[in-house]
Every structure is written in structure tokens, then in C-alpha cells.
């Protein structure tokens, strides 16, 4: 295909994706006009809207495959791969705002889409295995949650670049939108740290003898001359 | 309305909501049969599918209004109100799995739905004000995120009760699905705690003298007989 023909095809497909997402009844003529491409050229390639839609879905799947490959989901550090994948898919969702669910009847598309889903699921298992994702979540939760966040960011945070929107998605995906855990909601380890902090503060303010530090560390202590002097053996 | 007539109507509406969500072309006759209600009784009330759909949308809005009222969004403690609201709306989404977006052309429905949205937005502002939600998030993020999570839990975690599903939604909404923040991503306070923890571990293992505890607390220390015995004044 010549370079200008390729550019025209790309313009017809991306314009068509955008217009058909907003109005599924948009005509090929109106899409050609909006894309600035001669209507007869478009008709020569796509006999009807369904053919154009098929090409758009194909372009979307191809873009998703490239997004996954570019993110190096199997080998890049998980946190890096997650951000790159999210950033890439936000861009895909903006360029190709079409729902693949409608095309799953097409065998070839469904196979390619299933392979993408499997790749991302394997990545999320790796992310759990490497300690990025919690393991105490129900099945079918972290997986389906990610595309929902990506989609929300792609369309409801349209003023953000894909990279900025990915910052928000990854942050929310990993940490939620709540203020970081408070004492009463903390897991035991964090509660313990926080008790230690209180004790430190008490020692500094003189309301608790410093020997508490040593006791906490399992060291032997002996009180020496006066109530606030201690012998510590480590 | 007599009690059995009210029960029949309820059965027709909930069965209709479920069947029309799965297949928008489901017939009134098939809905009546599934609901176990005489077809003529249903036709007397709803001349066509659109009328039945209108009644279903109305029932959904009413259920949402009740869910909000029951959650006492303006006065209950925010964490309690958030969980109750989520639990209630999960139940609403399961009973009335219809998308109100289609009905927003209807003035009365749109006004009632807008009032619900405004009530929830006011609640989320209260939740931010009271320190439950972060304030460093972009506009139009925490708000639209909540119904996405609720919807995902309602339908993708169908084996969980509304209460259990609400546990998952609220936990993810507030804390995400990532392992709690790691050292490199931590705010300074947490990093400091974690340094202290490392020091504690070193003292316990004997690789750092216990007096570190005292020094950390700003106390005077004197080395006594031998390298590992210290005098601490607090």
C-alpha cells in the first residue's frame, strides 16, 4: 500500500471508530467526509458499514496486541510493565473506542482477544507472585477491575495524557482512593509499629522509662541508682 | 392494591428486569410465564414492552432512593454509610439490572436520578472532608469509580452476598488491590518506621548495640564495663 493510501485508510478507520462509538448509525459517507477522504475510495474498500466495523475491530485487536508486546508483560519489572500496559491500553481505548464484545462471534477475532486476555492474566499472576498484588482478593476481581479502571480513565479523564491517566489508574488499582490505612483498620504488623511509635513518644516526653526500649528488644535490664537510670545488657 | 396483586406485580417487574437485561427482545408473554403470572393480567397492566420497561426503571430509581435513605449518607459515620450504601446498591443492581441511561430522556426519571447522584456526590465530599478519601485525586474520579466497582461486584461476584461483596468493594475502593505500600513508595513517616524496625532487628540479632534505642530517644548513655553494657538515663 502506498504511504498516502495507508494514511487515508488509518484516518477512515480511526474516524469511523470514533463516529460509530458515538452513533452506531453513522454513514460511510459521513465518516469519509469527516476523515477528509474521497467517499468513492472508502466504498471501493468497504462495501458496507459492517465491513468497515470489521476492519475497525481488527485494528483494535492489533493495537492491543502491540500494547501488550510493548509493555513486555513477561519480562519487565512488574510495576514498570503494569504502568506501560495501562498507558498503552488507555491510548488504544481512546483511538479505538469500540467494544470487542460485539465481535466475539468472529472466530479469528475471539482467538486473538482470548490470547490477549490470557497474557494479561498471566501477568497479574506474576504481579501477585512478586508481591505487587494482594493474594487475599476473591477470584475474578483484580483481573476484571483493571479494564474498568482503564476505561474510566480513558474516557472520563480525557484531559489527561495516557501517561498521566495511567498514573491515576495504577495508583488507584494498587492503593485505592482512600486515605492510607488508619490505625483501627491496620494489619497487626502496622498496629505494632504504631504502638512502638507511641512508646517512643512517651519515652521522649518522659512519661515512660527508656528501659522499655531494651525490654522490647528482649534484653536484660537492671535498675541502678534512682528510678530513671537503668543498666542494659545487649 | 391487594397483597397478592402487589406480589404478582413485583414478580413481573423483577422477572422482566432480569430477562430484558439478558435479552432486550424478551416478550411480555415469556416474562409472565417465567414470573408465574397470568399473561392477561400482565397485559391489562402493561400494553407493551416499553410500558413494562418504564415501570421497571421507575422501580429501580425507587430502590436506589431507598438504598440511599437507608444508608443515612448525611448523618451516619462515613465508613458505616459507605459500606451500607454499597451493600444496598449491590442488591439493587442484582434485582434491577437495567441501565438507567436509556431512560434519562424521561424528565421525571432523570430528575430523581440526578437527585440520587447529587446525594452520593455530597456524601463523597463529606467522606473527603472527614479524612476517609484522599484529596489528591483528579476531579470526576472517585465518584464515577464507585458505581463501576459496585457493578463489577454485583455481577462478577454473584456468589457473594451483598454484604460480602460490599466488603470487597469498600476495601478495594479505599485501599486498592495492591500489597500495602512498599518501602520505596512509602511516605517519609512510614520509611522512618521501617528504618526503626530494621534497627530493632539488628539489636535483637546482636549486630547493633541496644543503646541505639536510647540514642534514638535522645537519652544520655554511658558505656559501662565491657563493650555491650550501657548506662541509660531517661
From TrEMBL, chains A, B:
PROSITE patterns with a match to the protein in the record: HTH_TETR_2
Residue intervals of the HTH tetR-type domain: 6-64
Keywords, sorted A to Z: DNA-binding
Ranges for region Disordered: 180-207
Basic and acidic residues biased stretches: 193-205
GO molecular function: DNA binding
One matching Pfam family: TetR_N
DNA-binding annotation, residue ranges on this chain: 27-46
Protein name, per record: TetR family transcriptional regulator
Organism name: Streptomyces antimycoticus
Amino acid at each position: 500500500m502506498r504511504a498516502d493510501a495507508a494514511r487515508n485508510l488509518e484516518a477512515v478507520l480511526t474516524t469511523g471508530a470514533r463516529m460509530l462509538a458515538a452513533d452506531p448509525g453513522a454513514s460511510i459517507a459521513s465518516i469519509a467526509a469527516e476523515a477528509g477522504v474521497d467517499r468513492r475510495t472508502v466504498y471501493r474498500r468497504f462495501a458496507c458499514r459492517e465491513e468497515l466495523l470489521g476492519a475497525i475491530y481488527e485494528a483494535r485487536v492489533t493495537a492491543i496486541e502491540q500494547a501488550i508486546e510493548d509493555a513486555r508483560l513477561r519480562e519487565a519489572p512488574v510495576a514498570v510493565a503494569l504502568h506501560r500496559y495501562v498507558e498503552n491500553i488507555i491510548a488504544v481505548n481512546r483511538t479505538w473506542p469500540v467494544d470487542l464484545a460485539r465481535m466475539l462471534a468472529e472466530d479469528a477475532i475471539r482467538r486473538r482477544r482470548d490470547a490477549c486476555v490470557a497474557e494479561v492474566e498471566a501477568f497479574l499472576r506474576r504481579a501477585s507472585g512478586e508481591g505487587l498484588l494482594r493474594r487475599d482478593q476473591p477470584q475474578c476481581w483484580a483481573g476484571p477491575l483493571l479494564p474498568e479502571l482503564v476505561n474510566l480513565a480513558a474516557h472520563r479523564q480525557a484531559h489527561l495524557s495516557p501517561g498521566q491517566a495511567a498514573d491515576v489508574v495504577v495508583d488507584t488499582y494498587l492503593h485505592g482512593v482512600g486515605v492510607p490505612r488508619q490505625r483501627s483498620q491496620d494489619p497487626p504488623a502496622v498496629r505494632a509499629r504504631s504502638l512502638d511509635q507511641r512508646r517512643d513518644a512517651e519515652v521522649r516526653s518522659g512519661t515512660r522509662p527508656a528501659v522499655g526500649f531494651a525490654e522490647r528488644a528482649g534484653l536484660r535490664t537492671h535498675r541502678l541508682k534512682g528510678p530513671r537510670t537503668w543498666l542494659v545488657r545487649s
